[in-house]
Amino acid sequence: MIQWSFSSLKDFINCPKQYYHTKVAQDFVKKASEQMLYGTEVHKALEDYVCKGVPLVKNYQRFQPPLDAILEIEGDRYCEYQMALTRERQPCEFDSDTRWVRGIVDLLVVDGADAYIIDYKTGSNRYPDPKQLKLMALMTYAHFPQVERIRAGLLFVMHNSFVNEEYTRDQAGKLWENFIPHLDQLEMAFANNMWMAKPGGLCGWCPVNTCKFYRER
User: Fold this and answer.
1) Global pTM value
2) How do residues 136-158 score in pLDDT, each as one tens digit?
3) What is the rounded radius of gyration, in angstroms, for the C-alpha atoms of the chain?
4) Distance of CA 154 to CAs 14, 116, 129, 159, 165, Å?
5) Integer CA distances (angstroms), 181 to 108, 129, 188, 189, in order
6) Mapped to the 3 state alphabet, what secondary structure does the chain carry?
7) Which one, of 175, 177, 195, lies nearest residue 186 by Cα?
8) What is the spatial distance between Cα 35 and Cα 81, in angstroms, rounded to a whole number?
9) How far apart, in Å, are the Cα atoms of 97 and each of 1, 91, 130?
């Protein structure tokens, strides 16, 4: 049985060969870039402010206005909340051997039948990808049976912009359609042990330097 997350499935979609070497064979390591390290640092600061009341340091105080708006949302607040589902799409422990998919939501607020999902982003807002929100919504529906309506958003803190999504429980089947075709391809790759390279603009950042498409940046 495959085990996946939004980020690992995205890696597979971007390049099956890189996915194989970094996730399956694990003979190459995908190193964190300076941008990724900065993103992790900002995420921690935002989490500490929203969930623990830790003041933002001077460099991050410009992110405070949208965070203060988030703090006005009523309900039970869950920060860096871990969720996982079995192949039958039932909730399970995050590290369970029976898990099929798992993920961590930056901020989840549950207020009865309503829930709010926030994902912090430190990168560009030019090409927002709300599929991660869709997956978090599906896992929220499984872990919180009382939730019927979800408002979700990508908060691009560097640009003070917000990409909104809204879902209802009866849309769950359609939301899964965003992932099933790619999951079928992933299962086929495992079944046939075929991991095709997909050359593109990210080849200069790829750690698999034995690939014929590898190039120095």
Assistant:
1) 0.93
2) 999 999 999 999 999 999 999 99
3) 18
4) 21, 11, 9, 11, 9
5) 27, 17, 11, 13
6) CCCECHHHHHHHHHCHHHHHHHHHCCCCCCCCCHHHHHHHHHHHHHHHHHHHCCCCCHHHHHHHHHHHHHHCCCCEEEEEEEEEEECCCCEECCCCCCEEEEEEEEEEEEECCEEEEEEEECCCCCCCCCHHHHHHHHHHHHHCCCCCEEEEEEEECCCCEEEEEEEEHHHHHHHHCCCHHHHHHHHHHHHHCCCCCCCCCCHHHCCCCCCCCCCCC
7) 195
8) 23
9) 10, 13, 28
Residue-range domain boundaries for the chain: 32-178
Angle ∠(159,104,35) on CA atoms, nearest 5: 40
- DSSP collapsed to 3 states, 24-77: HCCCCCCCCCHHHHHHHHHHHHHHHHHHHCCCCCHHHHHHHHHHHHHHCCCCEE
CA-nearest of 122, 123, 125, 154 to 137 is 154
At 12-37, the pLDDT tens digits run: 999 999 999 999 999 999 887 888 88
